[in-house]
Amino acid sequence: MPYRIGPLEMLLILPAAAVYFIPTIVAIARHAKNILGIILLNIFAGWTFVGWIIALVWSITDKKQAS
Predict the structure, then answer these.
(1) Of 42, 53, 57, 63, which is the most buried if we count CB atoms within 10 A?
(2) CA dihedral 24, 25, 30, 36 (to 10 degrees)
(3) What is the pTM of this model?
(4) Does residue 41 register a pLDDT over 80?
(5) In the chain, domain spans
């Protein structure tokens, strides 16, 4: 029998996903130069607290792309 996601689960999953992808959101909003690297680090190592912190710091400190 398949598991159905109810409203309570969605209320927990969506904010958790938003928090998980904060480094990616920051990098995109700041037009970071290394967006792809930050996204990949966030996806593959963000589940570790250290990987998430590194991605966040990188997204904040990365230089912006030239307009």
Answers:
(1) 42
(2) 30
(3) 0.83
(4) yes
(5) 18-61
